[in-house]
Design brief:
Layout lengths: L1 E8 L7 E4 L1 H11 L4 E6 L5 E7 L2 H14 L25 H10 L2 E7 L2 E2 L5 E7 L7 E8 L1
Antiparallel strand pairs: 1-8, 2-7, 3-5, 3-8, 4-7, 5-6
Length: 146
């Protein structure tokens, strides 16, 4: 069994940004030498997510509107009450809503790998979703198999 891990940098440019990392993940898979197995794409950040969906600009706008509707910025989040958090390290950002959005989306996706090809559907792309940008972000690509 082979195991390959690579970190991919994927900076965001908007407050909520769907960064298409499909080609970067394909490149990591090619470097792995694994032809049959699985690919896990994982984000180590608490205000980012990894999702698979269609990369169509109007649909991405729909996703953003849905996230704002489900987890509004203007709500009060206990996480943002800095003065009440003892011993917590804070960068000063009021981003409780970003953490809640990330919880809804998830931190990883697993894709089967067959004959060196990720089994993504024709219209599927892999996104690193920054929910508290713009920031320099990264994802971990972990490939295992034969």
């Amino acid at each position: 069994m082979k195991v390959f891990t690579q970190e991919i940098t994927c900076p965001s440019h908007e407050y909520i940004d769907f960064v298409d990392i499909t080609d970067d993940v394909r490149e990591a898979v090619a470097h792995s030498g694994v032809t049959s197995g699985s690919v896990v794409v994982y984000t180590p950040h608490t205000t980012t997510a990894v999702v698979i969906n269609h990369n169509e600009p109007m649909l991405l706008q729909d996703f953003m509107r849905m996230l704002y509707r489900l987890v509004p910025v203007e709500e009060q989040y206990a996480h943002d009450l800095f003065e009440l958090r003892r011993g917590a390290i804070s960068d000063g950002r009021s981003n409780g809503h970003s953490h809640c959005k990330a919880l809804l989306l998830g931190v990883s996706e697993t894709i089967p790998l067959v004959e060196g090809v990720m089994m993504l559907g024709k219209m599927q792309s892999i996104f690193a979703v920054d929910l508290d940008g713009p920031r320099k972000r990264s994802v971990i690509v972990h490939v295992t198999g034969l």
